[in-house]
Queue: 2 jobs
Job 1
Amino acid sequence: MSSGVAARRDAKKLVRSPSGLRMVPEHRAFGSPFGLEEPQWVPDKECPRCMQCDAKFDFITRKHHCRRCGKCFCDRCCSQKVPLRRMCFVDPVRQCAECALVSHREAEFYDKQLKVLLNGATFLVTFGDSEKPETMVCRLSNNQRCLILDGDSHHEIEIAHVCTVQILTEGFTPGGSTRATGMFLQYIVPGAEAATQLRLMAGEDANGSKRQAAAWLVAMHKATKLLYESRDQ
């Protein structure tokens, strides 16, 4: 990929919406697959009362819209201002209690897991029916749109084309815990009739590489949940 194309993919612009300032991709097609669209606000005339506590709106009890769900609430039920990175808001925005809880949980992904995915980890990678794995570094691209695999060969898999993700684990015991050891992934190649299969397995522990790979897999598992939520929107 040329530096010019990469720059266009990563270019962003500042826009103002009714909900606040947003830093969005210059080109909509290059938006993060984990992103959410801004909701349509429930029209003021359709919500004479708070949609949580049923308080009647008047000159004292003012109405506020949750920036995540678009529903209408009183100040008491919609007082929290929480970062909403999946909608690219620059500053924390007003959210109802239920949405604020979800956004707080997602903040952990952006503060921790996303950094792990961007840094990448080393795996033994097997494509399709091949019997010989290749040692490759797998990471998420800076614009979050592709999985990049680098080794003796180079591959880029668009996140939007991924159709199946299964985290492989070992060490389960009743009442115990499991350890992520690999990932089975299927993705669609444009023009192909069937999905392409890919298997990533953590290699032997060398300089902490196996622990790094396990952390990357856990982060990918969280990313997959966000991806499916975005598709269901």
Job 2
Amino acid sequence: MIMAMSANAKSCPCFGLFLESKCSLKMKKNQVGMRKHKNSKKIRKTIVNELGGQYEEVFNDVKLELRNCFTAKAVRTVLYQLYEMNPPQYIWLHNFIAENDPADGKRFLRILAKEYQDLAERVMITRLHLYGKWIKQCDHGEIYKEISDENLELMRERLLETIVWPAADEKTTD
């Protein structure tokens, strides 16, 4: 089903596509520390060892998140290209995205390949190209420094929030 584009959609080729926020980690209800037990009607808090971010040497969750982010970025790139070069395909892909979330990259591409093989291949090639470009530009030392600086900034902000400053009109005497 192809819908006509509104004036807002025409001014922004990615109208309705908010992939940046969808690249964040998604957790199932059972993975946030709350579980419903079969014999009990109330919810009991239990410690769950299914969350990502455990202290282990494997970073498969991070690799999956990166692949999903590159898929989402590739979808936005192809969508923008189609907006300029092939409006009917743009409309089709835009509507497909509205029904299928690109944040789960593998699932999204599997469904897209069944419905429109050429577009799926284009997104896959674009995803690989964007990753190769990112690897060449990626400075791991810089990323480490940015994380460290951001941590320091956040801790400083929190420290300043917790300090009780003496009132300006109080005088200290020795």
